[in-house]
Design brief:
Organism: Nitratireductor aquibiodomus RA22
Radius of gyration: 11 Å
Helix content: under 10%
Largest sheet: 5 strands, antiparallel
Order of helices and strands: EEEEE
Distance between the termini: 28 Å
Protein name: Organic solvent tolerance-like N-terminal domain-containing protein
Shape: globular
Strand order of the largest sheet: 1-2-3-4-5
Oligomer: single chain
Length: 72
């Protein structure tokens, strides 16, 4: 899945990433557990908004892992 210039719910119905809404210039999903976003990335859930330049989101051992380069 590749989504550009817009918002998307991460990955598919079987994913554990769907709690985040991801908005970015480019979004790619490598498989059901790894999402890459770049360019004005905004991650949101019910109570939080995080702004980044790049983000990699994965789900391992029951935890959501966000590897990120912070926005300036």
């Amino acid at each position: 899945m590749i989504i550009t210039s817009g918002s998307a719910l991460a990955a598919d119905d079987n994913s554990n990433l769907d709690r985040f809404e991801v908005s970015a210039e480019e979004i790619t999903v490598d498989d059901t557990n790894v999402l890459h976003a770049s360019g004005n990335v905004v991650l949101t859930d019910e109570r939080t908004e995080i702004r980044l330049d790049k983000a990699k989101i994965s789900f391992e051992d029951g935890k959501t892992i966000i590897d990120a380069l912070a926005a300036k």
